[in-house]
Amino acid sequence: MVRVICVLIGYVFGLFQTAYFYGKAHGIDIRQHGSGNSGTTNALRVLGTKAGLIVFAGDCLKCMAAVGVTRLLFGDRHPEMIYLLCLYTGAGAILGHNYPFYMGFKGGKGIAATAGMVLSFHPYFIVMGVVVFFGIFLTTHYVSLGSLLVYLGLVIEMVVCGQTGVFAGMSQPQLTEMYLLSFVLAAMAYWKHRENIVRLVHGKERKTYLFKKNKVEQD
Fold first, then answer.
1. Interhelix angle for 172-192 vs 82-98, to 10°?
2. pTM of the model
């Protein structure tokens, strides 16, 4: 039951669609422009760097806040499985971001929310996430490629950290559950990026730049 509660906590926080509300405040529905996604990359391309950074911060912070609530509620009651519960909360926030019920279940792709989960999960994961994403993005300018490799790194690091005792106090069944959940999250991210993957394979993926104008006419 506690796992369900954590997912629901995350989902409620994830429902705050930063890109949608920011766009509305500036007179547009972000879902009707660019790729149609209510997320950081589309906001960056359509509304500019400032908007992209604000949207990223908002979507990142909502997941961090959800995880913070879970730690406050269950940190003392379930210390042996708090990492697992935080992962369930992060999964809920990503689901809320990707599939908000009040927007017809059409949101973003969950990458900024995932960043919030990584930043609030364990310090080891922060280094991996920052190095992998920005290393790939700043050299290739492919947001999708950086995002997909972060998820691959997340799954690998989860298993490595779990099996080397980083998550002290967790039983092997709990660790295995955490590995499976991280794999499911990665699979969902790859599914959400399936069109991007096809374009990457064919060399047609659109590049994104932080400090120069991005073209938005293509999907």
1. 20
2. 0.89
CA angle 31, 32, 34 (to 5 degrees): 85
Render each residue's pLDDT in the chain as its tens digit; 219 residues: 999 999 999 999 999 999 999 999 989 999 888 888 888 888 988 888 899 899 999 999 999 999 999 999 998 999 999 999 999 999 999 999 999 999 888 888 888 999 999 999 888 899 888 999 999 999 998 989 999 999 999 999 999 999 999 998 899 999 999 999 999 999 999 999 999 999 999 998 888 887 665 654 443
| Structural domain boundaries in the chain | 2-201
| Residue 79 and residue 169 in contact, taking contact as beta carbons nearer than 8 Å | yes
What's the burial of 208, exposed, middle or buried (CB within 10 Å: 0-12/13-18/19+)? Answer: buried
Please give the biggest Cα pair distance in the chain.
51
The secondary structure of residue 112, as a DSSP letter, is H
Q: How many angstroms from the chain centroid is the CA of residue 142?
A: 16
**Rounded Cα distance, 140 and 136, in Å:** 6
Q: How buried is 181 (Cβ within 10 angstroms: 0-12 exposed, 13-18 middle, 19+ buried)?
A: middle
